[in-house]
Amino acid sequence: MKIELHENPVREVVEGYFDDAENGCRGYNGKLNIRPAFQREFIYKDKQRDEVIRTIKKNFPLNVMYWIKNEGDSFEMLDGQQRTISICQYVNGDFALDCDVFSGLSVDIQEQILNYKLMIYICEGDDDEKLAWFKIINIAGVELTPQEMRNAIYTGEWLADAKKNFSKRDCTAYKIASKYLNGSAIRQDYLETALKWICERDNLEIQEYMSRHRHDKNANELWLYFQSVINWVKVIFNNYRPEMKGIEWGILYNKFHENNYDAKELELKIIELLEDDDVTKNSGIYEYLLGGDEKCLSIRKFTPKMKRAAYERQKGICAKCGKHFEFDEMQADHITPWSKGGRTIAENCSMLCAKCNRIKSNV
Description:
This protein has 363 residues and is α+β, with helices and mostly antiparallel strands. 44% of the residues lie in helices and 12% in strands. The chain is built from 16 helices and nine strands. It has helices spanning 10-14, 46-57, 81-91, 107-115, 127-138, 146-153, 157-166, 172-177, 189-202, 206-213, 220-236, 249-256, 263-274, 285-291, 304-314, 354-362, and strands at 2-9, 18-20, 24-27, 32-33, 65-69, 75-79, 117-124, 330-334, 349-353. The strands form two sheets. Strands 1-7-5-6-4-3-2 form a seven-stranded mixed sheet. A two-stranded antiparallel sheet has the order 8-9. A hairpin with a 4-residue loop joins β3 and β4 (32-33). α2 (46-57) packs across α3 and α9 packs across α11 (220-236). The longest helix is centred in the middle third of the chain and has 17 residues, at 220-236. The N and C termini lie far apart (63 Å).
């Protein structure tokens, strides 16, 4: 790989700057692609953005940036997107620093900022060399998420199309599903979640799925699948509650979406379970109602005092096999199962040996 250090004044880099959903983000008179497909979205907080401008105004050195030289006279930002956009936004008048917008500064200060020289390494090489360099230089920066690293490897039309729906601020996935998803769209959490769900369906790793579809013209399959998941959730659980956020809905969809559920019946059962003191994991109610596994609910356990009382009442005899065991060799069990109305109270506690309890649990 060929790498050369250049000194480019701010005025050259910000020339012709624009950033919009339709045409992307460019500077350097249109020759620099500031946000290529493998780059993350703009994530700087106001304080970080402001410090970039203060560094330039004080004429302090700013960390070096890296560009990739493409064929012809065009470039892609390899490292330095957050700083570059901060600079461009300030000169463009998108925000004020210490109550001053760029256009309101004195001509001398404006010129000082525009003449400030950015230290830029320009790299030339094949795709593998560029991506290897991208990984190396990002080790010392803001740590990339696993999905951001995958995006760096599997660039192409498929990824660009997927990011339109999953990776932009206020993207479509955010608009229809932010109540159900954890994380941030711009840090690629939404895209990673959708990929994890569809890969579980297809028994694939995320990398394998992205590799298979890398050269597809669009990401329609992923987007249609994601919409099916969210629409299914909204139909069968039509009364939203905060407990629904962050559930692995796609995994549940893959298992249960062909079953026929009655939304009204589900709602009545949800209300009943939310009022049940024995249920200690409310978010597990939804998976329990779909599949019937009580483990999802983390049913309240018998206290040590309840277990000791039951042990003494039984004189150490297992209620199933009739053999005697020491206290620490036995386990508590509901006499009347929780699913049949049995409560986690002393009167409903029975002590079983580990073997009998395991057999009963597997029945």
